[in-house]
Amino acid sequence: MSSDTTENTGFDLTKGITLADFGDQQLLRGQVGDEPIVLVRTGNEIMAIGAHCTHYGGPLEEGLVVGETIRCPWHHACFSLRSGEALGAPAFDPLLCWKVERDGERVFVHNRISPAAQPELLIAVTDRPKNIVIVGGGAAGFACAEMLRRRGYQGHLTMLSEDTDAPCDRPNLSKDYLAGTAPEKWMPLRPDDFYKDNHIDLQLGTVVQHIDTANHRITTKDDRSILFDRLVLATGAEPVRLPIPGQDSAHVFTLRSFSDSRRIIEHAKNARTAVVLGSGFIGLEVAAALHTRGLAVHVVSLDQSPLQNVLGSKLGNFIRSLHEAHGVTFHMETSLTNIESESVTLSNGDKLTADLVILGVGVRPRTALAESAGLNVNKGILVDEYLQTSVPGIYAAGDVARWRDEASRQALRIEHWVVAERQGQVVAENLLGANKKFQDVPFFWSVHYDLTINYAGHAQSWDTIEIDGDIAARDCLVRYQRNGVTTAVAGIGRDKQILEFAAASA
Ligand SMILES: Cc1cc2nc3c(=O)[nH]c(=O)nc-3n(C[C@H](O)[C@H](O)[C@H](O)COP(=O)(O)OP(=O)(O)OC[C@H]3O[C@@H](n4cnc5c(N)ncnc54)[C@H](O)[C@@H]3O)c2cc1C
Ligand code: FES
User: Which cofactors are named for this entry (predicted)?
Assistant: First the structure.
């Protein structure tokens, strides 16, 4: 190495580096004072950005450069290398950008570049919406509102949410927050001031009951009317409830909202045993979180192996063994026939003690509002590539939207955080005249104890699963293939390859 380095932070960029220091790498970690920086080489140009993703702090030197953007290895946030703007969720805050200076062979970094004004995107004056109403205060609704203001929309912006909390980090409700390792203050996507400062009229605890498409008016449950020029439906999905006797008892919960998670935590404080029905992502994450809280946890599921429909049985069984190693007990290929006050009865006749029961058997899209308004609905609100519904001027995004996916030539409805946020962002830009198709490759992550699984693409079914690496060694890339084509990949410890797959499939 021709320049000063420190073990943790890389090159001291105030002393300069040479191109040779990059070796065959495109990304190089360095520092200016205490500020960690990543240098990015694209062709002959070198750019400098903050080293940590503004979402959860992912290490951008392990990310992927695509054109003039960099993608975070952890949850695929996309940043502009020139302006630092968080172009694609789940990050919303920009990266710091630094000025790169050259002196002969050497490259130095000393100073920050002042943040660039974000480009505005406004449609022809005659068609500019004066009132945009967003129904839903979740991932898609929040991302839409945030992007509308970021792109310079100055009209009225109303966000109506049945939730009693402002938009929050919903994925965390079954992970660190439920486990007690993330404090409450980490949960809001933005502090309360954000809505006030950005003139977003966020009305919480507000249920929209009716849409009058002809008169551009919605009615709330408390009988208020609100007019709109453009409407965004981001009503998400709701947990499925099975007709199990006892499911209405006070110790039985589903998990969707911040208040659901708080209620479960309150109840868990006096509980010693929990039964989780369902071995999907939420069921298993809840099992891990409650185990971390010291409860004895049993998972009951109709499936042969956990997550087998999404990840296949090998990866599913590995995740099962991980939970078992932590002390979670599985009861597979069975269900609950009855929930009693301190126990449950399984369909195989077994009885388990249960101070707490969580039903995690999937969700269904909240389409009732759209359906009663006459919008086309079929297993989700049907939208085109631009995420517009069958009624012009009304858009849908997130878990509730079933969009026409050009790449796979099928209608897709996906229940992933990043997909919902990115759809919200595309809707915002289309409301301002961008005419942008939603073409992102679906991506999600799931966390079990200290193990994170990342997944990109969408494989409803497959004829072959190819495993590269060793699942048990937590180093694997699993390819889901149909007719020789890989439609999705899942990985442990293979973040870069998953980023590459997503970029190549876009
Ligand atoms: C516990 C949990 C953990 C998760 N973990 C992950 C994960 O690790 N990775 C991942 O990719 N995805 C995860 N997901 C899925 C992800 O959270 C969803 O895909 C995402 O929240 C969908 O966003 P949305 O905006 O479509 O819906 P939501 O975020 O559910 O928001 C819907 C909003 O609409 C409101 N609403 C509905 N109907 C009305 C009405 N009539 N009037 C007013 N308001 C209404 C609701 O109150 C809510 O505010 C998780 C989900 C949960 C519940
Ligand atoms: S930490 Fe970068 S996207 Fe989450």
Answer: FAD
Domain ranges in the chain with CATH number 2.102.10.10: 5-112
Structure-block tokens of residue 126: 């005659």
367: pLDDT strictly greater than 90? yes
Judge: domain 125-238+364-431, CATH 3.50.50.60: yes
Rounding to the nearest 10 degrees, give the CA dihedral for residues 185, 188, 192, 195. 160
Residue nearest to atom 7 of ligand 1 (CA): 171
Pocket test for ligand 2, best of 49, 54, 56, 417 (most atoms within 8 A of CB): 56
Ligand 2 center to 332 CA (angstroms): 34
Q: Which tokens is 459 given?
A: 């494989």
- Note the CATH number of domain 5-112: 2.102.10.10
Q: For the CA atoms of 223, 236, 382, 141, what is the dihedral angle to 10 degrees?
A: 80
- pLDDT in the model for residue 118: 60
Q: Does ligand 2 come within 6 angstroms of the Cβ of 90?
A: yes
pTM above 0.90, yes or no: yes
Q: What is the CATH code for 252-361?
A: 3.50.50.60
* Residue 142 Cα to ligand 1 middle (Å): 11
- Hey, is 455 helix, strand or coil? strand
Per-residue model confidence (pLDDT) at position 4: 46
Angle at 503 between CA 502 and CA 506, to 5 degrees: 85
Indicate the pLDDT class of residue 434, thresholds 50, 70 and 90.
Answer: very high
**pLDDT (tens digit, 9 = 90+) per residue, 78-119?**
999 999 999 999 999 999 999 999 998 899 999 999 776 666
Residues 6+ apart with CB under 8 A from 347: 334, 335, 336, 337
CA-nearest residue for atom 18, ligand 1, is 417
Q: Where in the chain is the domain with CATH 3.30.390.30?
A: 450-505
